[in-house]
Amino acid sequence: MPVSSRCLELLREVSAEILEAQRPIRVLRAIAWDESVEQAFFASGARELPRPEYRVPDIAGSLERFRALKARVMGENALERFLRETCESFATAARMLAAVGTRDFYFHSVEIYGRPASLTADRRTTNLDLARHFAEVVDGLAGAAAIPSPADEQTLSAEEVAPLLERRFESFFVGTTIKVEVVDGIAAKAVAGVDGVRLQRGARFAPRDVAQLEFHEGHVHVATALNGRAQPLMPFVGYPSPRTTATQEGLAVLTEFMTQSTSIERMRRLSDRTLAIKMAEDGADFRELYRFFLSHGHAEDAAYDCARRVCRGGLVAGGAPFTKDVCYLDGLLRVTNFMRVALVKGHVELVRLFFAGKIGLDDVPLFGRLLREGLVKEPQYLPAWAQDLSYLTAFMSYSAFLGDCDLTVERRRYEDLIAHAEDDLL
């Protein structure tokens, strides 16, 4: 049954209002820490708690607009549910920003992103279980023989990386200029926006770091922004909605795997962040988190950055972290499993729709229907791995088969086989 003329007109009107109302709600920008906070922390010998100051824009008007918009889309059809959930997500983000620096910030963060104890897609495993699993695997590998990665031993300056990334983006974003700038005053080594990437002056990047920026930030975050803005009826999906964060980050991490740009260090970092959020929930302050990351092999600047990610917007003294970073592993699991099911069942067209804009996993089937009705455009910018559906279907079919296997007995046999091989040599 096609979309009714009433729903279509409502979609046009509400979409235009969402696009305007969401503009002041930029969560990561509002809770960013100034460079001077890091300087003061290290000047104290890492003994004093950071004292970040936040410049939160006036979002009261946006909050009221989203409340009113939500009341206009109370129908139970898929399109109105999508619009209603989007409005509620932005309203919750506005309430979270209004509570920056308080314990309430944490409660709103959990409502949007979840927390370590939140259940993953199987409704049995938690985000913390997933993080501990990755940590156990990574620690097992790290404790064994060194894993050679000669390319990562070399580093490039930000000034060297900028033109390199611009050339790579130029070949992917044909017809669109994506700027890469080297700037002062950003707290992280690299910050991606919808139109480009900023690199911290003085930072150095391994070749794998550059690849992660190219594929994670460029081929996913920038691409979904541009594809979303090009949507004729819903250009607001070109801007980040809090409810889509897990899908967007999961898609980006999956892209790292599909492009061989991830690493054991990267997976350790993602799992450690979830573990650190749990520590902060239990009362660990910024200094304890910083020392935790140091003890897990992170360099001082990386340990600071990871601890900052956990504490920004909440309480540096502990008890109220920012929980966004649980989304990476949780989103990876959900996106991968969705694609496994969709491809095995023959719904290959749904893969590319993940890139139609900044949408959530639950929105993908809806966008498939809207595409068939001519209300959604095909994404212009699509990573190579998402275009090679022959390989992707084969890979996901194999992955689905492995997921159905009970490897408990087989694992014990192989563990014994490896152990006995060592014994037989004595």
Structure description:
With 426 residues, the chain is mostly helical. It contains 19 helices and 5 strands. The strands form 2 sheets. A 3-stranded mixed sheet has the order 2-4-3, covered by helices on one side. Strands 1-5 form a two-stranded antiparallel ribbon. A hairpin with a 3-residue loop joins strand 3 and strand 4. Helix 5 packs antiparallel against helix 6, helix 8 packs across helix 9 and helix 11 runs antiparallel to helix 12. The protein starts with a helix and ends with a helix. 41% of the residues are buried. About 1% of the residues have low confidence.
User: Mind describing the biggest β-sheet?
Assistant: 3 strands, mixed
Order of adjacent strands in the largest pleated sheet: 2-4-3
Q: Helix fraction?
A: 55-70%
- Measured distance between first and last alpha carbons: 73 Å
Strand percentage lies at under 5%
Supply Rg: 22 Å
